[in-house]
């Protein structure tokens, strides 16, 4: 048995607002140090040795996941212009293959594609496997075809640092053009197909500048169209579905501002401001033509906590606002998609996503209905301004991912595809329901539960439980199907999601009550959910494994300190566990942008004291029984640096934690390894560890 790595303790003092903190492991931040790399490799060797007894279980779980997946499969084609675009996978291949086939002029019904059967007239646009050849990591970023369908644009990342290189191919000749743009974020064609609009980042990894590249010209001659100097704001851009406007959006976590450029003229024209930014006001726009007039529909939260939708004249966006959907507390408006003859609105009510059709003439909303009590539904894959069908995505904890087309004339919901699950999967054999826990302040916190019925209902007898949580950025953990999760459920594990404050499940106030100086609510909500599941007989503390990633990893570190006795194990993926150190350093990637979410401890002593009271690294307890812990990280992660879990794990071992492991992918980013088989193996590693904690290792 290999001994656990114990990095050297080296003096490092952090002093702010009169408070001094000794940080002996800060030296691990030097990614270029051979000593640091050697330490990370030692952590990997230790984790491999400590889990060697699970090798057989890992392989079985991997084969279970692979055995449920139709490895040679195709997506439902989406029509854009005169072509059907789709992707397909092939057995044994890590990455998708992006294709298209010619569409008949008036045929809007997507062709039914059969796995393994050649598609007549297929053109392969991009084979991800060919792109990835010779690289340990591959991620596809931008992917766009010109409006005339003669050119392809795509971007690649071979390191995991989310800096992409743009490439262009002539789809008529098959020639890859000399145009190559490095270190980009998003990228897409101008409507005439002769230019590329793309964003770049500053030294803090913040997208801050929009550029125009003309095909056939040197990158050095590219035109800067827009720059956002405020380091708290990031930049993005896109073209409206109508192809009428370029929209440039800048935003922080709490404030946004948008500009438009009329694409019937020069794309380099000065962008026109829609609404000037005001602290705390967020908005987004969609373009529609109503009664022959160009209108901008603006979704905003100006004196409307859960947002309202208004319409303004595109020629005078700061003029009269006509209210389309008034603010309604408890109905959190999420987004709008404008089409030629109608719009869709997506909103959240009673913890679930809803989709409605908006009539331009009457402002009436027709809500689409679905049968399951817990589900996710949304508008997905509708590039055309006008189509007789509306493409929808749907799923639940027990229903695999589903693609529907809504016939807009008849309102019939047409099933186009449901994710195949091989091996005789029957959704009726699994149950899902919602329970409610009481937080310390009396707030009711929803919990989603999923289980296999043959083991009995939750509460019949204590069962092993996998409790997942996130709770930041108003991000909601909505019902969704997982092939890998079946390997837990089929072994008797109950899967649960604690929908804690800081997420968006219950509306904007739910988010506000779990951020800044209310962040502790996120952690105490999660503890309350675990206590509720124990109290109601669903499980026992030694049979709970908690999981969270990124900001959810902060949640894991916090609850490990708050209630270590409540968990048998904790899986923390790319965990934000050295939060205060990161948020204090504006030179680190994305730090200043994050101040709206966590507060500014650099300049505000109250925020500093509050963050120090919960930041996991500073609050590891000595002399307590720590749960078993597995931390997963990646060397090239630009969002949550590997050093955070590395320092945390070292501190836990100092405090006497006897079963703490860390796995660091040496060629990967925030999303972990690339390639579907690699990701399945990574998940099999995690699931085997969790099952071992739960006493279910075979």
Structure description:
With 698 residues, the protein is of the alpha+beta class. 18% of the residues lie in helices and 33% in strands. The chain is built from twelve helices and 39 strands. The protein has an eight-stranded mixed sheet, sandwiched between helices. Strands 3, 4, 5, 6 and 7 form a five-stranded antiparallel sheet that branches. β38, α11 (643-654) and β39 (660-665) form a beta-alpha-beta unit. α2 (55-68) packs across α12 and α6 (520-535) crosses α7. The model has no long low-confidence stretch (mean pLDDT 96).
Please give the structural blueprint.
Blueprint: E1 13-16, E2 19-22, H1 34-50, H2 55-68, E3 73-74, E4 78-80, E5 83-89, E6 97-102, E7 123-127, H3 128-132, E8 139-145, E9 151-157, E10 164-170, E11 176-184, E12 187-189, E13 195-201, E14 207-214, E15 223-227, E16 234-239, E17 245-251, E18 256-262, E19 272-273, E20 283-290, E21 293-300, E22 308-313, E23 322-325, E24 331-338, E25 343-349, E26 352-358, E27 365-367, E28 376-379, E29 389-395, E30 402-407, E31 413-418, E32 430-438, E33 444-452, E34 465-469, H4 486-489, E35 494-498, H5 508-512, H6 520-535, E36 544-549, H7 551-562, E37 569-573, H8 579-584, H9 591-598, H10 605-614, E38 628-634, H11 643-654, E39 660-665, H12 676-693
Parallel strand pairs: 34-35, 34-36, 36-37, 37-38, 38-39
Antiparallel strand pairs: 1-2, 3-5, 4-5, 5-6, 6-7, 8-9, 9-10, 10-11, 12-13, 13-14, 14-15, 16-17, 17-18, 18-19, 20-21, 21-22, 22-23, 24-25, 25-26, 26-27, 28-29, 29-30, 30-31, 32-33, 33-35
Helix pairs in contact: 2-12, 6-7
């Amino acid at each position: 048995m290999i001994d656990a790595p114990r990095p050297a303790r080296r003096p490092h003092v952090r002093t702010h607002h009169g408070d001094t903190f000794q940080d002996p492991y800060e030296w691990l931040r030097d990614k270029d140090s051979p000593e640091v790399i050697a330490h990370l490799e030692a952590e990997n060797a230790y984790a491999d040795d400590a889990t060697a007894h699970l090798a057989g279980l890992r392989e079985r779980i991997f084969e279970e996941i692979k055995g449920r997946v139709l490895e040679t499969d195709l997506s439902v084609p989406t029509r854009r212009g005169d072509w059907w675009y789709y992707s397909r996978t092939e057995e044994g291949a890590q990455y998708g293959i992006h294709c298209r086939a010619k569409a008949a002029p008036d045929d809007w019904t997507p062709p039914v594609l059969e796995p393994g059967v050649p598609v007549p007239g297929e053109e392969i646009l991009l084979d991800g496997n060919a792109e990835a050849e010779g690289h340990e990591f591959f991620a596809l970023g931008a992917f766009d075809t010109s409006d005339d369908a003669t050119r392809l644009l795509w971007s690649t990342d071979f390191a995991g640092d989310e800096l992409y290189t743009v490439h262009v191919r002539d789809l008529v000749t098959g020639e890859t053009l000399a145009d190559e743009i490095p270190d980009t974020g998003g990228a897409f064609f101008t409507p005439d197909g002769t230019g590329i609009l793309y964003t770049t980042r500053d030294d803090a990894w913040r997208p801050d500048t929009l550029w125009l590249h003309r095909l056939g010209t040197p990158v050095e001659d590219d035109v800067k169209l827009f720059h956002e100097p405020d380091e708290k704001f990031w930049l993005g851009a896109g073209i409206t579905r109508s192809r009428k406007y370029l929209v440039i959006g800048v935003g922080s976590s709490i404030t946004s501002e948008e500009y438009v450029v009329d694409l019937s003229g020069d794309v380099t024209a000065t962008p026109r401001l829609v609404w000037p930014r005001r602290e705390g006001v967020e908005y987004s726009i969609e373009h529609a033509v109503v009664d022959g007039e160009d209108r901008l529909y603006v979704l905003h939260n100006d004196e409307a906590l859960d947002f309202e939708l208004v319409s303004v004249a595109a020629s005078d966006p700061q003029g009269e606002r006509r209210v389309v959907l008034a603010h309604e507390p408890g109905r959190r408006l999420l987004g709008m998609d404008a089409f030629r003859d109608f719009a869709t609105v997506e909103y959240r009510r009673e913890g679930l996503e809803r989709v409605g059709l908006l009539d331009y003439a009457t402002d009436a909303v027709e809500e689409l209905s679905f049968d399951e009590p817990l589900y996710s539904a949304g508008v997905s894959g509708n590039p055309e301004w006008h189509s007789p069908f509306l493409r929808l995505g749907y799923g639940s904890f027990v229903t695999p991912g589903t693609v529907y087309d809504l016939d807009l004339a008849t309102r019939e919901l047409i099933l186009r595809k449901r994710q195949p699950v091989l091996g005789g999967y029957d959704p009726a054999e699994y149950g899902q329901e919602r329970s409610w826990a009481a937080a310390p302040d009396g707030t009711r916190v929803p919990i989603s539960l999923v289980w296999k019925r043959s083991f009995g209902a939750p509460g019949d007898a204590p069962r092993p439980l996998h409790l997942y949580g996130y709770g930041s950025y108003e991000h909601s953990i909505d019902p969704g199907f997982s092939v890998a999760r079946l390997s837990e459920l089929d072994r008797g594990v109950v899967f649960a999601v604690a929908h804690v404050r800081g997420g968006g499940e219950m509306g904007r106030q739910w988010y506000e009550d779990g951020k800044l100086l209310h962040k502790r609510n996120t952690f105490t909500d999660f503890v309350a959910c675990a206590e509720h599941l124990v109290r109601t007989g669903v499980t026992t503390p030694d049979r709970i494994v908690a999981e969270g990633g990124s900001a959810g990893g902060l949640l894991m570190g916090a609850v490990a300190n708050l209630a270590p006795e409540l968990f048998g194990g904790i899986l923390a993926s790319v965990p934000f566990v050295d939060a205060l150190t990161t948020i204090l350093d504006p030179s680190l990637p994305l730090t200043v942008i994050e101040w709206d979410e966590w507060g500014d401890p650099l300049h505000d002593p109250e925020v500093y004291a509050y963050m120090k009271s919960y930041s996991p690294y500073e609050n590891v307890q000595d002399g307590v029984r720590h749960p078993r812990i597995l931390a997963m990280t990646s060397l090239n992660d630009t969002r949550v640096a590997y050093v955070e879990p590395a320092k945390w794990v070292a501190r836990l071992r100092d405090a006497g934690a006897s079963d703490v492991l860390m796995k660091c992918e040496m060629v990967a980013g925030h999303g972990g390894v690339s390639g579907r088989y690699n990701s399945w193996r990574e998940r099999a590693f995690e699931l085997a560890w969790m099952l071992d904690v739960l006493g279910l290792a075979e």
